[in-house]
Amino acid sequence: MILRRRTIVGTACLAAAVTLLAVGCGSSGSGGGTNAAGGGSSRTVTIGVLTDVTGPAASGNKTFVDGVKAGTFYASRNGYKIKYVVADTATNPTTALAAAQKLVTQDHVLAVLAESSILFTTTNYLTAHNVPVIGVSQDGPEWSTAKNMFSVAGPLQQTKVSTTIGELLKLVGVTNLASLGYGVSPISSESAASGALSAQVAGIKVGYLNAKFPFGSTDVGPEVLAMKNAGINGLWASVDPNTGFALISGLRDQGVDLKGVLLPTGYGGDILQAGQGALQDAQGVYFTLGYEPVEMQTAATKQLQADFASAHITLAPTYASYTGYVSTGLLVRALKDAGPGVTQASLIKALSNVHDWDAMGLFGGHKADINDRVNIVNGADNCWWLTKLEGDKFTLVPGGDPVCGKLVPGKTVAPAS
């Protein structure tokens, strides 16, 4: 795989300490012995968890660890004891690579579960060492090109366009959209551009588009004024919660009448723990989710909540913790398919044969072919669920449970470079 990404420049990133949190954790499931990566017949496996525990991207990704922890209880019920080592990227390219190298050379993990805005700085190394990687494709195109990497929602093709975002924006009454993404993050940048094009397909004017915003910044004054001058009444912000909440606060301070704000992160505990200021700013904001929200109280969401309770996690589920939980579930699916004496090669082979992933029921009857590296833009069947923050509660949005779009033929955006 050819890595075609830039080094993140920013005081917060470059000053971040090299923090490697070695946490030996696991479920109470049966089995013992050596890591299955060594070829033993044990049902105990050791994995790495690579995520942004600290740094600018932590606001959207750090709770990934909670999801993995809860997922170990799912694994236990299925006969696997999962031990995991947490490696913090600190949202810093040098730190991220060192973290990945430690997982491989010192911790000897069987696989890596990952959610990081800068994962693309580590993937050449992980691919070269044939390490299976399970997580979510929110950073770069390596999820589509590297055959050892498997996204729980499928390898998202953000240069392509589906009708999903446009239909969601139309549902909440947006007529003039502002779309913003991070320039340094390929997926974020491309998502901002493809979201704007999806809105245009739905008949919505795009008054403002910025796919090159500085990574993790909350200095949004010029952008807010430009959006106001463009007459926007809706916002699609493919960014971390800290940036998204700053945009909303700034727009409201400028008296912009926002008919609909859609954020892909910030759902659940992310906003509820962000303080009263953020909670107030986010009133009436819509949050997208690629899984059934816990507010639906389906069998799958009740099981997720039960596993979170077993893990003593009191924070409400977030986008990242959902993904950590589902990533652990996909690992268990592959371990079962690989059979006894699993190796990294046999685990990759098992993952390569998964074409009907249902996220332990959290896709609500929909399925994702995690090996379809061409057609998936917005997750399983291009479906997103929509919730709205009202007070300190998330409510379900009529008609948004879920919205399932289709690929728009002939519509693409330029790859981020």
Automatic annotation (TrEMBL):
Matching InterPro entries: BCAA_transport, Leu-bd, Peripla_BP_I
Keyword line: Signal
Signal peptide: 1-22
Record Pfam families: Peripla_BP_6
Record-annotated Leucine-binding protein domain positions: 44-390
Family to which the UniProt record says this protein belongs: Belongs to the leucine-binding protein family.
Protein's UniProt name: Leucine-binding protein domain-containing protein
Annotated source species: Pseudofrankia inefficax (strain DSM 45817 / CECT 9037 / DDB 130130 / EuI1c)
